[in-house]
Amino acid sequence: MELDGNALAGDLREVFAGDLTAAVFTCAGCGHAGAVATLRVFQPAPGLVGRCPSCEDVVLRLVRTPDRVFLCLSGATRLELSLDGE
Amino acid sequence: MVDTRWETKTARTLVLDVPEWPGHLPGQHVDIRLTAEDGYSAQRSYSIASAWPSDGGGTVELTVQRLEDGEVSPYLTDVVEKGDQLELRGPVGGWFVWREKQPAPVLLVAGGSGVVPLMAMIRARGLARGRQPFRLIYSVRTPEDACYADELRRRVRDDPGLDVHFVYTRKAPDGWPAPPKRIDVAVLNTHGWPPDFQPDCFVCGPTSFVETAADILVALGHDAKKIRTERFGGA
Predict the structure, then answer these.
(1) A39: in domain
(2) Is B75 a domain residue?
(3) How far is residue B138's CA from residue B140's CA, in Å, rounded to a whole number?
(4) Chain B residues contacting A, CB < 8 Å?
(5) A69 to A58, A72, A83, B29: CA distances (angstroms)
(6) Per-residue pLDDT for B234 more than 50?
(7) Least confident of A33-37, B53-57, B126-130, B197-201
(8) In this predicted model, which residue has the larger pLDDT, A42 or B47?
(9) Is A41 a member of any domain?
(10) Are residues B152 and B222 in the same domain?
(11) pLDDT at residue number A61
(12) Is B123 helix (H, G, I), strand (E, B) or coil?
């Protein structure tokens, strides 16, 4: 099943102080920049994998265990967040 | 869960009373987690259908479409009853949301149960007595598959700032001027806003629907930055 980065909001909210779906990522593979909400997300998988909508490289991986969360952002060269929460 | 109602034969609205709910913006969703006795758990995101009044005191309503092979949705549509408790996280999401202070006209494009977060935007505009004109283009298989049909009819009748156009993909009502078809350039061109109006566009539905609609909007001249999309799976 295919979803998008909007579906990551809840899990990312547990890691970050604010909403991350409106943050802008820059893909390390192709340089595309877009809202985290626009990442392509496929389920079911052992974790959540967000792929670049432009080149399909993996931008973000998030795995939850009962008491830990692992977040890998090696596919993004940067994240840009608004400071006013919007 | 304090109340429930069926919107169609397969879509059910759950009215939730969530302790210490902070309020929400239209377009936000909640994550619901079901846990079996053996510890196995499954989590899904559901869009909130209700609008939250600025002075509080609203309800949290989810409209869940039953997917026959789904792991979570059949439980929510057919098993949970009034009085049951659900494990919920939210509200979450800050990109696919509409805020009352956005002055632009709004185009909402819904495929099937993708209408849920868009309905929250229509309801929020109604609550806030927003002056921004809204247009909803709502693609459904048949007239029986349309959620909120009576409410939309009433809102359109009472509110000159809201237009709704249905697209029927399998079966149109008797007397409908066009045969069943999928959303296309003509529909979005005729029933959407001209790109010159720089509307805020929200598109929600299955992936193929969202891509088709968003591609058409860009081809018609809408700024890609003004188009926000949400793809759902939701089993």
Answers:
(1) yes
(2) yes
(3) 6
(4) 29-31, 43, 45, 89-90, 92-96, 99, 207, 228-233, 235
(5) 18, 10, 24, 21
(6) no
(7) B53-57
(8) B47
(9) yes
(10) yes
(11) 93
(12) helix
